[in-house]
């Protein structure tokens, strides 16, 4: 015989406290017949009667009176555990995210997470800071920068400028001194903080050196705002994703010599947090990061 012990003890407590099988069953939110069966099954399991069924109403036997205090503690404990479990489900999961993500996309991510039973507390930060935040457990999880081969989400990068570039692909070597067509100033490529990571930055520097650019022609900006300001005020180029180019009003092209990719993975202080985020929020995070943007040129 299978007995729902918690349900049986809950029915026993409710009937005992109200002195009525009808009212006790209503308090337990089950039909009276179900409450009666549960208590009868409990009596059979314990080997003693809990109620004197020869009396009117629900009158406890001596054995029933002896069992009532323990049963009440059990039911209260179960109620407390259910409340704590609900609070734990609603407790925000603090997630470090790229500070380059647009506010609207972060808001959509948080809203979709709630629909999937995950309450996010988003903390925008630069790549190095995100990794440190999860190591120090100041956040429960972080979207960390990783090489493309290790990435859960991948975002293709290219070069963007204010003018509608007349080529389908921008080759870094065309920025060499003497190749500029409208200005004697050497054009620069600006790397934003999100891409100030070895697998992107160092590849750009190696390409710069291989094609003969001056060291200052590929640099890392202090902020995305600063990098964008340089590009808007000159013929410089911004290393960015197609989605960022659209947001900033720039014209995007792939890089000719290399194919830089911004890769993201999840680092979590607790392993199941990482799996929960990937399972429930993969598409929402992809949209927020700009993963899945078209590989074609964006104007």
UniProtKB/TrEMBL annotation:
Residues 4-61 form the HTH lysR-type domain. Keywords: DNA-binding, Transcription, Transcription regulation. Signal peptide: none annotated. GO terms for cellular component: protein-DNA complex. InterPro entries: LysR_HTH_N (IPR000847), WH-like_DNA-bd_sf (IPR036388), WH_DNA-bd_sf (IPR036390). The keyword Transcription regulation applies. GO terms for molecular function: DNA binding; DNA-binding transcription factor activity. It comes from the Bacteria. Gene3D superfamilies: Winged helix-like DNA-binding domain superfamily/Winged helix DNA-binding domain (1.10.10.10). Belongs to the LysR transcriptional regulatory family. This is LysR family transcriptional regulator.
